[in-house]
Amino acid sequence: MKTLEKPYVVGIDVGGQTAKIGVIDTRGSVLSQMAIRSDDTTDVDVFIGNLCGAVTKLCKSYGLKHIRGIGVGVPNGNYYHGTVENAVNLKWGGSKHIEFAKKMRHNIGIPVALTNDANAAAVGEMTYGVARGIRHFIMITLGTGVGSGIIIDGKVLYGHDGFAGELGHTTVVRKNGRPCNCGKKGCLETYTSAMGVARSAREILETTDRKSLLRNFPPASITSKDVFEAAMEGDEIAKEIFEFTGKMLGESFADFVAFSAPEAIVLFGGLTKAGDLLYNPIVKHMNNNLLELWKGKIKVLFSTLKESDAAILGASALAWEL
Amino acid sequence: MKTLEKPYVVGIDVGGQTAKIGVIDTRGSVLSQMAIRSDDTTDVDVFIGNLCGAVTKLCKSYGLKHIRGIGVGVPNGNYYHGTVENAVNLKWGGSKHIEFAKKMRHNIGIPVALTNDANAAAVGEMTYGVARGIRHFIMITLGTGVGSGIIIDGKVLYGHDGFAGELGHTTVVRKNGRPCNCGKKGCLETYTSAMGVARSAREILETTDRKSLLRNFPPASITSKDVFEAAMEGDEIAKEIFEFTGKMLGESFADFVAFSAPEAIVLFGGLTKAGDLLYNPIVKHMNNNLLELWKGKIKVLFSTLKESDAAILGASALAWEL
What we know:
2 copies of one chain form a homodimer. Chain A is α/β, with parallel strands linked by helices. Chain A is 37% helix and 19% strand. In chain A, helix 5 (194-207) packs across helix 7 (236-260).
């Protein structure tokens, strides 16, 4: 067993299906990593028990006796209070107010800091990713849901209550919008998340007779990955779905730019694998909807950090501050 | 002639029709005030000559020999560069890049700082108005256009280029939206500015046969003030127009809250005279569109500063920093 003297922290990225855990050194290297399921219990205490068990196991397997602290990025996480509130995309997160950081600290005996998963990803990108040197940007995470972390002058925007940056729940369709898990209708998330893309596929297959490779799947089982793979094989409907998704994102981004005038919008998550299929319509529709003064000037960047590293690294940045 | 030893500054609020000038003392009292037209020339140098002439006259009439500096709030003003760019609502402002602060300083020989008019109003409200003690809020000015000034943790949000806070040009109607002076379609400003309210009146009068006091006016001459007065006399169409205007604002405010999680949204400008006619639909539709965690928690406040004082006082705050 190695005995390491240097300081280390743990960064955790909690998503709708998995929680990814990494041991990070002072240089921001992810030394060791593992994942556990986050959707196999509806009891938050069971999940926190599993998570703390995994952290302990990971540290032991790496020969670590001490870690400085744990930083957690989690949907609907509140930095000010260490709580998770109304996290509708988490199986155990529906409750109004979960004292997540406190529960975890009690379980594992190490200081825990917590923030929204997208805020964590934004900090990760700013410190180690494509947003290095950019002091004003908006991070958009395209996962099960759509999250956002807003960086103003090099700092996360938390707002008066710690919940700023819920851009996935801005309304993009006012009439007959798709119902969202949050209880509203027409939220950006319902059109541009991985689930939104799958939903677009089902809608178009159900309402037309057009041929598509996607007809090889039972409609209910179609995922955004299936749509991506069909698009890569040249399927017209699949390509249109990415065009539509990019349009919805680009139109919204123009409004976000009018708010905070960022230098860049940074995208992160599985959907970004679609590359130009998504990038081109985003840039086109964003510029079509920007005021003259911003046309052609706002960068759209896709994260180049290894999947999940941005959020793990960003969460770890919180732990160093503990 | 009085000779005053204490330090004074001048605050100027440039609007689409008039520019209001005030002499301000260190306690934030507007000691003397005057206004000139801002829409009687298309030549920016002529306007700046008129403005500097008026400042000199006002200071002389008050017996002031020295003023510390001049702060100007102007639509599309850029704090970083002292410029006015693409100000489509100003007769002399269509040019891409006007070195407004520099030109004024050359003309009058006193240091000049400049910002967006809505940012100036936000600073005025924060320092002297309803937003005292509120560190996170969004100022919305309902005038000829719709402006906004965003305050994050007690500071104006400028963004990477100085142009943050163009919320009047976020898109509220994606299909067949009203054309905006900015070249886009469906901007919030086209529905909720004073001009937008008049336009709503003309549209409803032209497309229905319903009775209304507003039919006493030639359609082209109807102003938001006419609509307000008709509503106060119980005119149904006029009341519906305020309901519609408040709905458009409230829906947009919900999206703004999702961005920066402000404690309050502060409204300013002639339309706020409509009071509950505007306030009630704003609050109702904002709450209908907010995430659960914010419902009923975000304040909507109407400015109580004397008309134009907020922007003059806010602009003067810039001058003290010179």
